[in-house]
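Lay summary. Proteins are chains of building blocks that fold into shapes, and those shapes determine what they do. In this project we predict the shape from the chain. Here is one chain we studied, written as its sequence of building blocks.
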Amino acid sequence: MPDSPRAQRGVIDTSVVIDLQRLEADQLPVELAVSAITMAELAAGTHATDDLDERARRQDRLQRAEAAFDPLPFDGEAARACGRMYAAEVASGRKARGARALDLMIAATAHAARLPIYTRNPGDFQSLKGLVDVVAV
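And here is the predicted shape, written in a compact code that computers can read:
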């Protein structure tokens, strides 16, 4: 049982979408939102393996996510927020390229929507304190 009431709405990052079937509902907000960036990561993930069984699992996950979510866009407000996320990441001594850049874009989408971000990898967002609320699940 969580110590505080569940948030009404929050952005789940790619790590949570991947593990969604294994998570308890009380670990997550009542209403789940995803970023268009997460959907792009899921789409790319289907092509990132040569294992046919794994590719089929990833394709199934992508199709379930596409059916369940209307993704939040990476819009102008998210782009501006991403600049602040990038600056915070670089100031912390971490590189903000590659997969890290995608995490920053997801966090910026959550920030622009004024929603917390739920993640299985809270360390990926440690430099963003004060910019976006991060909830570890």
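What the prediction tells us: The first strand starts at residue 9 and ends at 12.
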